[in-house]
Amino acid sequence: MADAAGSGTRTTRSARRVLVAADKFKGSLTAVEVAERVTAGLRRVVPGLAVEALPVADGGDGTVAAAVAAGFARREVRVAGPLGDEVTAAYALRGDTAVVEMAEASGLQRLPAGVFAPLTASTYGSGELLRAALDAGARTLVFGVGGSATTDGGAGMLAALGARFLKADGEPVAPGGGGLAELASADLSGLDPRLGEVELILASDVDNPLTGLQGAPAVYGPQKGASPEEVERLDAALAHFAKVLEGSVGPRATAYAASPGAGAAGGIGYGALLLGAAFRPGIEVMLDVLGFAPALERADLVVTGEGSLDRQTLHGKAPAGVAAAARAAGKEVVAVCGRLALSPETLDRAGIRRAYALTDLEPDVAKCVAEAGPILERTAERIARDFLD
């Protein structure tokens, strides 16, 4: 690959303070570890350099960790995992603001290796996490969704918060999206009344509707192990779910199903909208919550990044959000990544001055994954020489 991607040549600007605001390198490094490695590499070239670390996330897995790194307290609670077994999940709390990450309870990470349950995985534990945050006194709930093992339209979450979903014989439907095909009646009157007294923000990097060609089952079901036949079953079951809910809560049930974000994280976005959530791009929400604006004001150079800089990055992922905010503030941005699949022109349009990939230094992708930390430090040394030395 080229020495480094981006437009122009080496800058002559002397940066005095660096802000490292990068997401995780999935499967290799957490966002906190990325910040630590970048800081170490920069300071190896410029000893004593002022570096501020602000790990970021876009609402998916790693969101709670980013909040904790920004000063939130980590709270742990025992909840149901996607298969019903108990797991220890965490949320983050600062004052009366809670950051709840659905992947903590209902994510793919909670399934045994190689095991998928597209028809039966439930979001019940995510509802228990939200309830725990309410119990802790939260008045603002930032609900980050992504990385789910589930495609149940948020039915499990709603059930944990007091809703009832029954079959024709009066028994509860089976957990998971598949069980919704037998749904005969829905009763949301028992929902926790505190939900009407708090601000609930649905933070996601996707804006898919609940069903259809761009819906949760069709677009994301295969990632959760759903076969083509199971995708069809799930799509029909979720459409039926919305139809039954229309009889219970009125036309808004159908309107929400077509709304942006309803299909997020296997349709849990739909359940959140039924609870009155306001949908916002995840990275925008998290930058606000994490205190990005004042940190940006203090910085002369911003380092962002994630495991793969590609077309998906441009659609609501953390580096794109960081770069957009930094560009608006007139700050220079460089990016680090494991793999780079964007042209210099595209990076420039996104507000990224230059991108540095681990594969620039180590073409063997397997080695980049296994030795991401040391290679990232060497990559940060190159940034320091190009922009700070």
UniProtKB/TrEMBL annotation:
GO terms for molecular function: kinase activity. SUPFAM superfamilies: Glycerate kinase I. Transmembrane segments: none annotated. Its EC number is 2.7.1.-. The keyword Cytoplasm does not apply. Keywords: Kinase, Transferase. It is an enzyme of class 2 (transferase). Pfam families: Gly_kinase. Belongs to the glycerate kinase type-1 family. PANTHER family: GLYCERATE KINASE (PTHR21599). This is Glycerate kinase.
